[in-house]
Amino acid sequence: MHNCFHPLQYKGSLPSGLNNPFDYDPDEVSLLACKDLQASLPSANVEGKMYGVLVVEKEGELGYLAAYSGQIADNNGAFVPAVFDYLQPDGYFKQHEQEISQINAKIKAIETQRNFIKAKDTLIKAQQEADKAIEEQKQAMKISKALRDQVRKAGYVTIDDERALIKESQFLKAELHRKKLYYRDKIAAIQQVVNSYQEEIRLLQCERKLKSDRLQAWLFSQFKFTNYKGEKKDLCAIFRDYYINEGENTDKKDRSYRQQPPSGAGECCEPKLLQYAFTQGYKPIAMAMFWWGASPNQEIRQHGQFYPACNGKCKPILSWMLGNLLEEKYKIKELPNEEIHRHRQDVSTEISILFEDNYLAVIDKPAGLLSVPGKKLAASVYALLKQKWQGRCEPYMVHRLDMDTSGLMVVAKQAHVYHDLQQQFINRTVNKRYTAFLPLSLLDKNLPPKGKIILPLTADLFDRPRQKVDKEVGKIAITTYEIVGKTHYGERLKQQAVRVLLYPHTGRTHQLRVHCAHSEGLGTPIIGDNLYGNKANRLHLYADRLRFVHPITHKEMTFSLQSSIK
């Protein structure tokens, strides 16, 4: 029996409608509910998990529901139940999961079988032996040929001598051919033994995949959600309909990757909270999700920090559960667009041009402005320069800065200039430096004042535009850093921070932001990093120095923005 409703004593005014789960700042009543929940959670040193609260009202009583992401076997009733509990020991899922585990055990038994290991070792040795024997024979043939050539050059070679030399050459060639045949047959015999074991493994892997796919499809069909109208739909139908309806507005990679729901869909806090509220007659008022505990190895999460719902797993579900209409019973705000994760702010339509000639321009991009037009946001460096130059030349975007990053960019005016500059970036001969302001807590970590961060990065497919560290499939990303020391920043320079110089040697998306925030990097997010740290008036990351060779004059050009960084 779940006693999920936690009464709240709150005398302030309540929100007029449910906040947007993809883009929000927690209001007072949500913060009160989170504080109450956090008091019952373990210390920050435990394995991290996402928790969430949904402030609700029923029959005039105010309270909140609590949830955690994922499933655990010992839910004590203080949290809302899973939409579908598949952890029952004697349930369908566990029984069929055991079948898959048994296949895994069979595969492991074959892989560790002594005869299989011996056959693989024998195969490797036979291949090495063959390579060595054939190479030795080829070398012997070269030496023999050189000797024969010397004999012929010396003269006085009789007909019988020439025949002997030819016979020797033919014998050595035949010997090479015999060795190749011998080792071919020897290796083929051993390979046949290895193949027999590998075929067993392959068949078991096919069986495992078939069972796993069927079990996953069955599991998704058991996740039946209820929306604000009381309508019901399972997970497969929700995702299918979402990507059919949103096809034109969805990234092609997302559509191809998620024809089926991703693993773990339906187990995040938001759908669990709304499911319980809609099925039990609670009126949703406000919701908030926060991370509690240590950060995972790949994604970056900060203890106690609030986070929006993820795109990959939650957006299709919540889009259907909440709908895009205002319903009298639940005054739900409009659902988010593609810019849900970005910090919005007013952007000046004026771009400061620091240098310009007939071939290129160097500009100071303001924070909050795209480098190139987005799907819905047209305002960008490209668009503004195109308008400014009024057809006299075309802006060729040599490189980009993140929307939230400000600073130096070089833009070509002609195609051949663009290609030259682009090649300089490819060859990594362009010198780029960034200045970042990090919290004073960085100094408590006792990091070396200078160092190098090497953490491979890849897109977080379930939570774009976030990036994550992935040491298996991530692309190499290298950053050199230098901790300068304390500095003042902000309005009237009243706030303190640590100034850090960053030198990217690769150009991965969000590279500097992730390398600063990740525990294996500096372990401290840049101030104002709403994706990997905490929100502020802006992201305090500045592309403050740029050095390159002018493609036409061949002179080295250096630009700096130190005086404007505050």
From TrEMBL:
Keywords annotated in UniProt: Coiled coil
Record carries keyword Cell wall biogenesis/degradation: no
PROSITE patterns per the UniProt record, alphabetical: PSI_RLU
Keyword Glycoprotein listed: no
Family annotation (Pfam families): PseudoU_synth_2
Highest taxon of source: Bacteria
Stretches of the chain forming a coiled coil according to its record: 93-143
GO terms, biological process: enzyme-directed rRNA pseudouridine synthesis
All residue ranges annotated as the Pseudouridine synthase RsuA/RluA-like domain in the record: 360-518
Single GO molecular function: pseudouridine synthase activity
Name of the protein in its database record: Pseudouridine synthase
